[in-house]
Amino acid sequence: MTKREYNFKEIEPKWQKFWNDIGLFRLDEKSKKEKFYCLVMFPYPSGTLHVGHGRNYIIGDVVTRYKIMKGYNVLSPMGWDAFGLPAENAAIKSGIHPGIHTKNNISAMKKQLHRWGVGYDWDREVTACEPDYYKWTQWIFLKLYEHGLAYKKKAYVNWCPSCATVLANEQVIDGLCERCDSKVKQKELEQWFFKITDYAQRLLDDMALLTKWPEKVKLMQANWIGRSEGARIDFLIPPHPPLIKGGIGGIKISCFTTRPDTLYGVTFMILAPEHPIIEELVAGAETYKDIMAFVEKAKSESFLERSAEWAEKEGVFTGRHAINPINGEKVPIWVANYALMEYGTGAVMAVPAHDQRDFEFAKKYNLSIRVVIQPEGQSLDPQTMKEAYIGDGIQVNSGDFNGLPNRQAMSKIIEYLGKKDIGKAAVSYKLRDWLISRQRYWGAPIPIVYCNKCGTVPMPEKDLPVLLPEKVEFKPHGQYSIVSTDRGPVYVPEKVEFKPYGQSPLAYVEEFTNTKCPKCGGSAQRETDTMDTFVDSGWYYLRYLSPHDDSKAFDTEKVNKWLPVDQYIGGVEHAILHLLYSRFITKVLFDMGLVNFNEPFKNLFTQGMIIKNGAKMSKSKGNVVSPDVLIDKYGADTLRLYTLFIGPPERDAEWSDRGVIGAYRFLNRLWQKVMEFKSQESGVRSQISGLNTFDSRLLTQDSKTLYRQTHLTIKKVTEDIEDSWHFNTAIASIMELFNSVEKFNPLPTETDSFKVLRFSLETIIVLLTPLVPHISEELWEMMGHEPSIFSLPWPTYDEEATKAEEIETVIQINGKVRSRLVVPVDIPEDDLRRRALEDERVKEFLDGKKISKVILVQKKLVNIVTA
Fold first, then answer.
1. CA 681 – CA 113 distance, rounded (Å)
2. What is this structure's pTM?
3. For a tag on the chain, would you pick the N or C end, based on fewer CB atoms within 10 A?
């Protein structure tokens, strides 16, 4: 056989074309095989992918290929989360329309995925920025609006001054914009929301169904939803002397607390700066301007600045008081920066003796502190306390509840409040409604119009999609000149700060904003905000089943057959955003009778990041590794093998260029060994074919050992893929088997040994197939088989063949290892004892010593104890 070099540049395009031609990844909807829906989170088309991005796509491809070989009918689609800020920001800076920018990026990324050998059913491709997709995103909005789950209100929102748009709470990380790291401000705007809070408890309860989700993801969602049990208590603001004409009074402010046992310890009340009652409360007061100045200052700060433990506690007295309903005491009402409308009611009953933030505030402003829970065996003194006591204890200074353990007092106090109609048991959530409005162009238009006669009017479904106008200006701030190009106008900066204006460019497109009311036919204005891109990704997994259906968003019969998704793969950074929103959308559709499943994703896998030089790969850090360069130099299979071998896929892993070279060398060694075997095999007279056409009982000892190791490797690799996805240990066991194959040199006359060698070598190729598919296909063909190797079933192991005929037994003298014996696995104890005592090295150590006893641990060791 003529020797060939491992030419991956020829091999990989060959097999990529072959898979495309035979439709390896094309779903057969008529197949009777068991279904398996494998889904990788669809990416934002950012331009180019680095090796860190590639990890989840390669993992998804391995699972898909493995399941094909296991006999499943596999659905593995791909699409593009194609709306969003980056494309629009790029348009502002360069003058390139977001649509062109996005399509160019999709083309580049699709080419990269193809080069990696990552296979998808591309006939099902969806792109969120195309009208045939966002038409149905708008339809979902209308469905939520129809059921009272989409609404518009004025609210304080997270405002990113750099992106010039609103952010949902989930998009603010440590007080910064998750996309650009700018400091987030608070701003009052009218915005559209989805009422996810209606589903807060179900989102928590149904986590019990997510048995195959990582616990850390479920914990993150549970913490974000933030269920708290406690009481809602009404504090009355008594009639006030006439600061304003007629005075005000009889106003109730509700507080939510998880600690009703501390109600007797309330010494002041605080309001969040955003609380709607503040201006009315202080109207006409001499300190009105000072109070409102503080309110505006506090509202301009981020929630992180206000709520963090280390944040400075600041406040201002309103001049008003509230009545503690349980003891009738008047307590001063303050506005404080650390109180948030985001939690509870925006009003807090302050108990400084038993809440650390209240304690710090009280100390700063010299407010009263009263202890109402004493720890057993101690006596807390408010004058000497260094910090709040937040533990359990016995009620003191608590009226009729004195002497009770505080946990027991909680329920009794709640019962008392209910009888007096001044409070009741309540549950509160940290979760707030999903803010979907974005003041940007590149997003799905919200299908709402505003009519002077009819008010807020949803677009009829028949008039969808509400199309984004293509002609829109992205004006930078400052002085600039406009140069005409074949792409349209490009802004050439002179003294320019490139940033968005803070409202959608759609507001300046009269052909878009000016429309007719679908109810009365009169003049109307379109909504110019666009939807958050997480609305697009909240339902895309349904669209893959009928991506070209113009009549409906998804085919209910098909999605009910194929969903929930059997395996979902993506980054843990989406634990709160995308995954929570997708669960919400699915539950809404379930309640509408449009799907028959309550959760969208049965199994979830979150891959770890690939890092370099101790940091996550990013262009700004200069530590990005280009897969294109590696593929040009070493091939896609090398990139895939190293990516899978780098470590357990759920953990972060450090990239090593030397490791890439090691993977390349292994593939070359495998290639050369197959070439060598084919050459040797041609010299053997007897016909050698098939994987196991020999009597294993008649093999040489070396052949038996290799045969057994091969079956053990099949078992190990199968378990590693099925049970834990530890591809790294699967690869390590394949490499160990290959090392044994390299050392195995049967004589030309030992035809059965050559058959074992072929069996072991072909097993290695088949086990590697989902991991490094190009070289596996080529080597399989070189071994004399017809393609495709993916028509093979996944190999099975023979349990009997994995059992050892002989084992190594350790011989100890007084607990120290002195020798080793290779003995039959079922050797009788008397024979084992005799052979141990007859061992020459053992005899040397026992010379002249008296044996006290011999301890046998079958299949492990013999310990000889001397007197």
1. 38
2. 0.86
3. C
